[in-house]
Design brief:
Serine Threonine Protein Phosphatase 5, Tetratricopeptide repeat, Immunoglobulin-like, four-stranded antiparallel β-sheet, transmembrane helix, TPR repeat, transmembrane
Length: 514
Amino acid sequence: MSQNSSSDDAGERITPVAHQPPQSVVAEPTAASPERPFFWVAVSLIVLLLCLVILWLPSQLNQRESAVTAAAGGQGSAQSSAEQTPEESPDTAPSARVSEADAEAVLAKRQTAQRIADALQLRRAELEKLSVERWAPADYQQIEVNAERAVNYFENREFEAAATYWGKALEQANTLLGQVEAVLKTAIIDGYQALEKLNSEEAVKAFDLALAIHPENPLAQTGMRRAKNLPQILTLLSAAENHERSDQLDQAMMLYREVLKLDPQSPVAREGVVRVGEAMQDWEFRITLSTAQQALADGDLDAAEREFRKADKLKPNDAVVKEGLAEVRAERLQRRIAALKAKAEQAEAKENWSVAVSAYKTVTELDGTLGFAQSGLARSQTRLELDQRLQILVEQPQRLYSQEVLASAWYTLQDAKKIDKPGLRLQSQMDAVDAAIARARQPVTVQLNSDSSTDVVVYKVGEMGMFDQKTLRLTPGDYTVVGRREGYRDVRTTLSVRPDVGAVSLDIRCTEKI
């Protein structure tokens, strides 16, 4: 009740009027006095006032208290302490002021209790919204008990006791509100643990509690969906496991993936997908490896290498795959070496020494430990050099007209003749060079004509002196002839002597005077 109510109550108090009889009546109380009727009038007024105080004023106070809330109960007035009988004298004013102060204290206690009750009502509304009766029924029941006690005390105008019990209930409500987050977290954890144990009933129960506390919680919403799908998931998982045990891996994988569509977080389905995937990969690996090994045994190196590399992608760094690829490489190497060896030998047989050298050299680069390649390379290089020297002489026999070249050609020919079982090419080269050397050594008749005044010198042959005519026998080649005469300019000419052309004539004389 507000202070205005208190003011209204105070305003409605009936203050008794003090009556003082006239002095004449007091001094001379005789029955025959003419003023005696006034005495009875005063007495009647006093009686009337007393009736008003006793009968009418309490009913007015009860009507005002009926406006207080039902939980708080009616508040009695403090009117009795302020009432005064008509017989009270003005000396009772201090007592009236004390009664008014008591009424204000009572009103303050009532207002305090009412404030606590209002706060409790808000907390109880919050707790009921959080479905407190589902997760703390006993504690919430205690709050209701304390609140009911407070209401009883309030209705009996024991406001201080009412405030105490409402305060206890409020403290208990605040404690429960502080436990909400922990209760929510525990419910969610219990739900997910039940999911891991594939217990649909317990999971639904836990997530239902979590959603009752926090309907928008994403973890609880997700968990509830998973929990409701769990019976169907269990059926699919059972079928998938049966297919897996029967090595029907494709069907098992399909069912595990179907489970993941219903519950992307299902650990059993995830593990199943990984396990079946590995099994399928292992099966494919074994098939691929077997195919590769069979291809290697059949000598199909391209197919073998292709399958081994496919197997390597399925299971990287597998020892068997590495060994298989090594065998393929080794077989390829052996085949290439064999092919190069055959090529070199064929080139040797055909006296195609440049091809033989290239083939043997490639073999030594592939495997430098092979003796046939080393000896073949040395042999082919020697024959190649000989072939090149002889071929030059065959193609350019005029080079033999130089004595140095002629001498070198003779030694080259001797080297060629040392070869056992020469081939057709070598024999042809030797015959051609031998004939060219013979022609280069065959002397040719040379006729020199002069004027007997010119001193003639033939380089590489000697001084011819002065003559009119001289005949020489010279081997094929180019000779420088110089003529000198006192008072004349020297003459110089080249004498080319070639085989198979008959006699050669040269006129040499100095004719230009200085």
